[in-house]
């Protein structure tokens, strides 16, 4: 017979304490989550490929050959330890080839090859590739010699250009600017335009924005300007009904008209920018006020807007007891539709992809790895337009999410209460608990604003030469107000077809929220030292700074604190270097290229800088 087995539990060693199942679990370092996510190395390799082609330049054929060859090696040896390396090399090669083709591969008939350097009269035919955007006329300025009226800007996909021998086939994209209104035209319509055709102007001064490179990122190789009136634009055929973007433009225009009918002029422009991404509806002075105070992100369509809208829609679905899986499909449809409606900006695409990925995980009942969907959103942004990662909005969006989710989320998480603190908390009444919860919410909101403001400040300084410390205090209340306005405005658009009586309460709430935003912004703009213009930090300093930010977010406690200390030292070192006086005792004169006009910068031997600016004919 088999020997009886002893089923009694083993004796507990007196030197080993029993496990405490109620003890809080330690949060694992963020780098472990990124190490487990399979798409992270793919996204990193694709980023390297983009950078290499952008700043060094590679052959499209060579990059494509490397990418396809590495992809084949990965497919053959997926079970081998080197499979991950081959997949990363494939991603880098294909991303470099995609970026190179996007910026440098054009048809021989492209309009950019025939456009002259100097604006020359020309007649061009094509179809509207984008919905026309109308810009308000600038306010009267006595320093402007030739005031400009209302202008409209769009993109024309060229099909033919007139030459001495008649119309010849052509291709490519042209930035069309019309001094007038193109009301009634939509994306997909066929046009014949008579205007002044030219190659885009490059940067005239060191450090100046390069308009030619900016348009090249959009595959636009020429500009066409119609002056004085819109009489030079003739519609040859209506095609917007067969174009997705034509329908999107019509819906957006209808929404803008409803907002203008329901709200005062100032608030309607803010609402159009906030809800529909129509920033042209806001006058330039109002837009600049938000830029200078460092809170323009509350107006420009970004991931924040989509997350607020997604949370509201999900709450409504839960209130009406919609099943989670059915609600997930509804939320996916809302996110995709709203992203297209607002122009599919990189930050909105990022948020939409992350929300849709979470919804698909709910449908498929699969776990979610935040680092994986973060990398997925980056790869999809690159696939849609490989030049978007080099834009300000895209960089700030992904940087803010990275720091917010894996940095601030861990740093500001409440620590588990001790038994004594738990007893004290249970002894408090509901009013005290509510006040404490309100205080913590306010404290966390301003802490998040401080963290994101400090992290984003060098990047904003590099792009805009602007530092706005007032935005750290202004951000939380404006986020709250614009969130209220976003939800109320969304409901306003939904009920507007029913009549003004149905839209009235939502219009009042939207207008009140946006009017309060205006009061805060214009008051903050007048605070001394609330915003200053400053020189941009050098590239090498930025690379080291954000390497330190990545270390502070990803590494565990001892190393993360060292990275934070290193960042503080690095910031003060950068300030010390930028404050060094100019060596030498010469008097330097720099003549700036500003077109028809005069502007001279005078640097005197005693360290003063004088600006002589006579302006230009265009202001």
Task: Tell me what the structure shows.
This protein is 54% helix and 12% strand. It is built from 19 helices and 13 strands. Helix 2 runs parallel beside helix 4, helix 11 crosses helix 12 and helix 18 (539-554) runs antiparallel to helix 19. Residues 1-25 have low confidence and may be disordered.
Mean pLDDT, nearest integer? 85
Q: Label the structural class.
A: alpha+beta
Strand order of the largest sheet: 1-3-5-7-6
Question: Given the structure, what is the number of helices?
Answer: 19
The major beta sheet can be summarized as: 5 strands, mixed, barrel
| Count of distinct strands | 13
> Helix proportion of residues, in percent?
40-55%
Task: Compile the SSE list and pairings.
Layout: H1 30-36, H2 39-55, H3 60-76, H4 83-104, E1 120-128, E2 133-135, E3 151-163, E4 166-169, E5 173-178, E6 190-198, H5 211-216, E7 222-226, E8 233-237, H6 244-262, H7 265-276, H8 284-292, H9 303-319, H10 324-341, H11 346-364, H12 370-384, H13 392-411, H14 419-427, H15 430-464, E9 466-467, H16 470-495, H17 500-525, E10 532-533, H18 539-554, H19 557-578, E11 588-591, E12 597-603, E13 609-616
Parallel strand pairs: 5-7
Antiparallel strand pairs: 1-3, 1-6, 2-3, 3-4, 3-5, 6-7, 6-8, 9-10, 11-12, 12-13
Summarize the structure in short.
With 619 residues, this protein is α+β, with helices and mostly antiparallel strands.
